[in-house]
Amino acid sequence: MNFYSYEYLMSNQDNSRLIKIIVFGFLVAVIGALFFMYLRNRFEIKYKDLGIIFVTTLLLLLAMQYNDYSNLLTTRKQTGQITGTIKETANRLGVKPNQVSVNSTTQTDGLLVDTPKGFFRIDFNSDGSSFVLEKVQLQNPKIKIVRRQS
Q1: For the residues 104-121, what does the mean pLDDT come to?
Q2: 4 close to 106: Cβ distance less than 8 angstroms
Q3: Predicted structure pTM score
Q4: How far apart are CA 51 and CA 143, in angstroms?
Q5: Buried b (16+ CB within 10 A) or exposed e, 86-99
Q6: What's the superkingdom here (predicted)?
Q7: Which helix (H) or strand (E) holds 113?
Q8: Distance, C-alpha 141 to centroid of its chain
Q9: Residue closest to 115 by CA, chosen among 84, 150, 82, 87
Q10: Domain of 101?
Q11: 4 Rama class: left (phi>0) / alpha (psi -120 to 50) / beta
């Protein structure tokens, strides 16, 4: 069973954004160069056709970027909820938040928490605004704590 540390949840998990920005910038530069070549040689259709291909690719990437952006907003919201829960749990137990790890990256009912004081289960009320913290005993605790990558 994987448990995620507070630092792991707080760190930025999306390393592919830089690669997407580089590809996006490259496509914009290629489209600009093709547009310039087309304006210089208006009678050569190949630059116009290549430009249309690259503009279509750019539009496809823009649509994927928007989808990734909306997913990123949802993930940030869920991560904010779970880190708030970790802070509140640490406060109730009198430990530091970086000593607490949870078994999910999203706020779910029946969330398991690993602390220096033992294992706890969190049960949320119907609207998720408050929770009950209950000490539990795991039968076979084969736990791997996932920490932030440096």
Answers
A1: 84
A2: no
A3: 0.59
A4: 53
A5: beebbeebeeebee
A6: Bacteria
A7: strand 111-115
A8: 27
A9: 87
A10: 2-146
A11: beta
Identify the H or E element spanning 3. strand 2-5
Token pair in block for residue 44: 């050569």
Distance CA 102, CA 79 (A): 12
* Two tokens, residue 35: 């547009």
Three-state DSSP class for residue 19: helix
Specify whether the CB–CB gap between 147 and 118 falls below 8 A: no
What pLDDT is stored for residue 17 in this prediction? 66
d(CA 9, CA 75): 10
Quote the radius of gyration of the chain (alpha carbons, Å). Answer: 24
pLDDT tens, position by position, 2-60: 887 877 777 755 556 667 778 778 888 888 887 787 778 777 777 778 778 878 888 88
Domain tally, the chain: 1
Give the number of C-alpha atoms closer than 13 A to the C-alpha of residue 5, restricted to the C-beta side.
13
